[in-house]
Amino acid sequence: MTTNSTHIPWIEFFRQENWYYDLFIKYGDPRTIDSYWLKTPEPMLAIVLLYLAFVVIAPRIMENRPPMDLKALIVVYNFVLVVLSGYMCFEFFITSFLMGYSYTCQPVDWTYSADQLSMRMVVVNWLFFFSKIVELMDTVFFILRKKDSQVTFLHVYHHATMIINWWMAAKYVPIGQSFFVGMVNSFIHTLMYVYYALAALGPKWQKYLWWKRYMTKLQLTQFVMIVSHTGYNKFVRTDCDYPWLFNTITFYYTWSMVVLFSHFYYTTYVASQNRRRQASKVTADGDKAAQPKLRQDPAYSNGYLAEAIDRNAGGEPAGESPYTLRSRKTKPATANGNGAAKSSPRRVD
Hints:
disordered C terminus; disordered N terminus; mainly alpha; two-stranded antiparallel ribbon
C-alpha cells in the first residue's frame, strides 16, 4: 500500500530542523501549493483568531449603539450563498460520478494526477473551504444587528472549526472520500440559505417557511450520514487507503455536532412544546376562573404565545440565520379584561 506517510514518530518528527517545511509543503498535496490560504496555516489561523476576537469585542462596541439596518445586504448575501452552495453540491456530485468514485471507500490519489477531472475536484474542495470563510458573515450580521442571543456556543464552534477542518482536507486530501462531506454539507446549506433568504424578505413570506423544523432535522440527518460513512471506513473498511487521521478527526468532530444539534433540537422543539402545553393549561384555567370570554383572546387561542415561547427557546435552525424570522408583529401591552397590563412576549426577532 503506497502512502505519503513519513513513518516517523510525532515527537521525533518535530525535532527535525525542517519539520515545518515537511509538514506544510513536502507532504501537502502539490496541486494545492499555490492555492490562496492553503500553502501554510498562518492565513487560516489568523482568520479564525480574528473571528473569535470579533465575537468577544464587537458586542461591547455595539452595546451603546443602535442596531444596524442590514436587511438589503443580508437578502443579497443569502441568495449568493444559495447559488454558491448549489454550485458546489453539483460539482461534488458530477465530478465524483464522472471519476467513478466509491461511496464506501474512495482512496486518495497519491500519484497527484493533474488531469481535468482531478483538478476539477481539487478546485471545488478549495471553493468549499473558502465558502466557510464567507459564512463567517452570519455572525457578523448577528452582532451588528445586536442579535447577540443567536451567537451561541454551537454557532461559534461550528463556524470556527469548519474552517480549520476543511483547510486540512483541501490541502492534504482534496482527492478521495472527503468529497462526500462537502457534497452533503453543500446540499444542506443550499436549503438552509434558501430558508434564510426567504425569511430575510419579511413577514409576508412567513407562509412559505413552514418547514423550519424540518430544516433542523435535515441538519441532524446530514451529521448521521457523515458519521456513518466515516465510521464504516474507520472501523469496517480498514483496508481503505485513506489517511486514518482524517477519518478519525471527521468521525469525532461530527459526533460533537450530533450532540450539540440534538441538544438544540430538544431545547427548541421538545422542551418548548412542553412549556407551550403548560402555558396553555395555565391560560385555560385562568380564563375559566376569571373571565370565560378571554379564551378567545387571539394572543392565546391562535398559538401566538406558543410561537413566542418557541422563538425564545432557540431561535432559527442551528442558531445560524443571519435574519431571524418575525413570526407575527408583537402587539404593544394592553389591558386585559381585568384591567391589568398584559406583558408582551420577549421578542427575538
